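Bumping with the actual sequence this time:
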Amino acid sequence: MTHDALAPAADQARAIATVWHALFWPNAIIYFAMLGALAWAVWRRRNASTDSSAEQSRQARRWTVALIGWTAFIAAMLTAYTAVSFVQDRRLLARDSDALRVRITGKQWWWQVEYLDADPSRQVTTANELHLPVGRMTRIELVSDDVIHSLWIPALNGKQDLIPGRKTELAVTPRRLGRYRGECAEFCGLQHAHMVLAVTTESPAAFAAWLDAQRAPAAAPASASALRGKQLFESGPCAMCHAIAGTEAGSHVGPDLTHVASRPLLAAGALPNDRAHLAAWLANPQAHKPGTNMPDPRLTPAEVTDLVEYLEGLQ
């Protein structure tokens, strides 16, 4: 996943990168020019004592003109920096009334992602993944359930804090297809480093197909082992924290697992999402993400196998 603020893939990140380049390269040139001028002045000073008084007067007049010119140059550069910053700020603050609306809630230590819709039955809830259509603005409402978090997707936009009791907003208009890494940029507890948001930007058609798939209920168990896993999920401690659409599990304390098998990561980036790592996570979550709010479910090896078989079918 791309994680580079200087490889912008959205209008907002491009505005930030433009300001960075506009500040960095002129300042780099000025820095090396100043070093050159300092070296010349030191070398010239060695011979200053042998100059005549008339030559020293001419040197003083030239330095006066140079300092006036330098002051004017600095004023012009600062004016140019201000103009660039002003223009790019307008791009960052631009809003579109037809924007896609998403709500992201920061939790210790994962992201709840909700695609909002005027029709509640068409809303989609997922976790630790964000899909965005290329060419359309998405307005992301940011809230926190516990402590201060900060969402940062360097290739798409800058950082924005999630503050308990307040709503903040981040706008993103992707321009390139790809996969990008978002993360929490505000220390929020023991597993702050394992709070990754996997972001996928895709064509409008692919995004619409993904959203429709997410609205579908969970797939029915395809084997006897998966059926036992479903029954164990609904009757055991799993249903006390998680929801799976189309089943009796409806809690929203932890991530929604309706389509968990389609996600690239487990435990907000602590583990890749495959059968072996899912089994290891279910057997002992604290061993892989110490401090996580998911308790040890105390499952037998056979129960782990059945649960993995069931959850792996939730595409």
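The tokens above came from a reply further down the thread. The two ends are 21 Å apart (CA to CA).
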